[in-house]
Design a protein that fits this description.
Blueprint (H helix, E strand, L loop, with lengths): L13 H8 L4 E5 L2 E6 L5 E4 L4 E7 L6 E11 L5 E7 L10 E8 L9 E9 L7 E7 L7 E6 L9 E4 L6 E3 L4 E5 L5 E6 L2 E8 L2 E9 L9 E10 L2 E6 L1
Antiparallel strand pairs: 1-14, 2-13, 3-10, 4-9, 4-11, 5-8, 5-10, 5-13, 6-7, 6-9, 11-12, 14-15, 15-16, 16-17, 17-18
Length: 241
């Protein structure tokens, strides 16, 4: 599996070099079809520096999920957004259920103004029509953190909860999210090993490329590049970090 290098940890040996040069398993994630969501005009910001948040959703008519979107904004320099998909979780805190997938959206990718950001998950083997849980882990401090956005009231179809540590989850207002499945539309992500690439478009042109590749054994550091494309008409001129 390919990883970014980390000083004092990474070893330059035959296995490492061959892993870089060899073919890598990958998956491609497209726009897909929205299968569940909670959206709205609400502009409530949720404190993600102090609390974990929990969102219930249904795998409606699908057994796989390709990506999710959250309405996010960063304050200060932001903080990494850690997102989990879990099954069988109990809001009374008696069980955390089973971790289905865990992904990180680096702080370097977060917008300065609230916007929906896509996170690839490429989850298969779900039970169609079953309830799953989207967990957003708290991260950051009073100055540097991120917010998810939502409504001023709850939604009985998409129940949301929060807690500061362990134990029972307390009800909270609805948080904006979108769940996608299937292969249609534009290419959004490429996933390989622990890393992924995100493609952003302006019209039909690629405007930015994001690449995240963590070192082995940690989500911190690694490659966190944002490349902005410059076009002259239909011709790509350059890409700048």
């Amino acid at each position: 599996m390919i990883n970014a290098f980390k000083a004092g940890t990474s070893v330059i040996d035959e296995a490492t070099m061959n892993s870089i040069l060899s073919l890598q398993p990958f998956s491609l994630i497209y726009d897909g079809t929205q299968v569940d969501a909670k959206t709205g005009a609400g502009v409530v910001q949720f404190d993600c520096a102090s609390y974990d948040y929990l969102i219930s959703f249904i795998a409606s008519g699908v057994t796989e999920i390709s990506r999710i979107e959250l309405e996010l904004v960063k304050d200060g320099t932001g903080a990494d957004v850690t997102v989990e998909i879990r099954s069988g979780l109990s809001i009374d805190g008696s069980t955390e259920g089973t971790l289905v997938k865990k992904m990180v959206l680096p702080t370097e990718f977060l917008p300065a103004a609230k916007s929906y950001m896509s996170v690839p998950v490429d989850v298969t083997g779900l039970t169609s029509g079953a309830r799953y849980w989207l967990v957003i882990r708290k991260k950051g401090d009073a100055t540097n953190h991120f917010h998810v956005h939502g409504e001023t009231n709850a939604d009985s179809n998409h129940l949301c909860y929060y807690r500061s540590g362990t134990g029972t989850w307390a009800p909270t207002n609805a948080i904006h999210f979108k769940i996608f499945s299937g292969e249609n539309g534009e290419l959004k992500h490429g996933m390989y090993g622990n890393g992924y690439t995100t493609v952003e478009y302006s019209g039909e042109m690629i405007s930015k490329m994001y690449r995240y590749l963590p070192p082995a054994g940690t989500t911190q550091g690694g490659i966190r590049d944002v490349l902005t494309y410059t076009w002259n008409g239909e011709y790509l001129k350059r890409g700048g970090l």
